[in-house]
Structures are given as C-alpha cells and as structure tokens.
Amino acid sequence: MYKNIVDLHVHTDNSFDGNHSATFFCEKAELLELRAVAFTDHCEVDQFKGDAEYEKRIFQAFFEVAKVRSAFKGKMIVLNGIELGQPAFDIETAEDIINRYDYDQIIGSVHNLRGGEDFYYMENLTLTQAEDLLKQYFDEIIIMLEWGNFDVLAHLTYPLRYFYSQSNLEIDLSKFDEQINKILELTIEKGIALEINTAALRQPLNKLAPEIDIIKRFREMGGRYVTVGSDAHYAEHLAADIDKAFDAALEAGFECITFFQKRTPMLMKIEKEN
Ligand SMILES: [Zn+2]
Ligand SMILES: [Zn+2]
User: For 83-113, how does the pLDDT look when each residue is reduced to its tens digit (9 = 90+)?
Assistant: First the structure.
C-alpha cells in the first residue's frame, strides 16, 4: 500500500546470529521492489577486543555489501551500515571501528548492561528486577547518546520483548517518563534518528519498538528523523511489517522517512500507492 518501501536494519550471515547472504537479501528485495536496503551487521563493541573473529567479520560484512551495491546498482539503493552494540562501553574501539570503513549509517544499540548478558537470555525475572534492569538500560542509552557518534537509535524498548516472552512481564513505561524524555531530547539535540523497529511484531510481545506514544512524543518535542527497520536475520523477514512502521510514522506526524548516505540524513517522502 506504500510506494518506496525501505528496510534500514538488516543482518546478513556476517552477523553471529544472521543466516543469509547480502546477495540473497538483495534478490529478495528486488522481488519485493524495495527502494532501499541498509545492511547493518552486528558489532558488539564491548566484545570486540576479546574476539579475534570480529576483525574478519566486520571487514567481510563491509566488503560483501560493497559488492552487492555494485551488482544491484540501478535496482535499489544499497546502504552499507553497521549496528554497534554498547559502543559507549568502549568508546575508543567504537571510534576505531567507525573510522575504518566508509559507512553510510551507524546504528547505536544497547543489548546488555555492563558485564551482563543480553536481555535475550534473561528468564523468570520478577517485576522489580525487570524494572531495575530497565532503569539501568535507559541510563546506558543516555550515556550512549551523550557520546552520540552514531546516526540511528535502534529499538529503544528492546528489553521489553524479552521481559514479556521470557518472564511474562508487561512493563508500564509511564514510570520511566523522565528518562525517556531525556533520551528523546538528546536524540533530537544530536541529530540522531529514532528507529521504528518491527522485530517484536514477530514475537509474542507483538508491538513496535518503540510504540506510537513515544514516536508521537519525539515528534512533538521537535524530532525530525525517523527510520524503519525489520531487524531481519532471515531473508523471509526482509521488510516485514514495514507498512505498520510507515503507518506509525504518519500517525505521529512525520511526512518523511530518513535514511543515511555517507552518514548524511536523506529524507524520503512517505507516499501511498494510488
Ligand atoms: Zn539490535
Ligand atoms: Zn539488529
């Protein structure tokens, strides 16, 4: 129902948890008539120094995407990005990675707390434990934004999907308003885009990350840039529910989706098919 569908958060088999090649994704993107795809393989910055594989993996990821960009030229816009996990835990390494290759788009994410495991692995938490973890998580997002050398703030409500699926907890975010407002304020101040991530629509939580109320608040506070991403780790999830992310952007008052080319924001009007 929309023209110019884009997917700006995609993982290939150069992510530790990815499954399909960039070529296979682009073939799928061509079938779906996508306007743009941004490949954003994982680099968990806090694990980079301890894992010799990362050097090879980020080189390979950049190289593969450069090849498909050339091969699919004229068919779609291919963007060469990276998803940095926990960059503020080791800023020196994060800056080093950013400066190595000519990235289009740097995604900033927090998947775990300092010295902790990914929220993905946390099971059977009590509500108090989950709320305490979430408070620490939002504080880490704030620290990451204060550093701010990235373009897209990924899946702002990331822990909620696992609190729900692994601990059967639904969190009332109104308790975290102060932190969330600070996050949105910093995102705007730094010219960073807020991502509307659709991955949790494929999970038991079945919600956008973040939900419409936060996207609206971001707009009301003066936010200009929103991106959309499926966070696909399989080709069959490419562009999944991106129409719902477009719906949310429009509902929140955004006329455009933003993608980054050579780390410069490019605005693309959201248009419905006739
Ligand atoms: Zn992520
Ligand atoms: Zn991701």
Answer: 999 999 999 999 999 999 999 999 999 999 9
Ligand nearest to the CA of 38: 2
Least distant ligand from the CA of 82: 2
- As a whole-number percent, the residues of the chain with pLDDT over 70 amount to 100
Q: What is the pLDDT at residue 256? A: 98
Dihedral class, residue 241 (left if φ above 0, else alpha if ψ from -120 to 50, else beta) = left
- Span from the CA of 111 to the centroid of ligand 1 (angstroms): 6
| CA 171 / ligand 2 centre spacing (Å) | 22
| C-alpha pair distances (Å), 269 with each of 10, 133, 208, 258, 266 | 21, 38, 21, 9, 10
Q: Which residues surround ligand 1, an ion (CB under 5 A)?
A: 109
Q: Which domains does the chain have, with CATH numbers?
A: 6-269 (3.20.20.140)
CA of residue 158 to ligand 2 center, whole Å: 10
Residue 153's DSSP bridge partners are 108, 194
Q: Which ligand places an atom closest to the C-alpha of 44?
A: 1
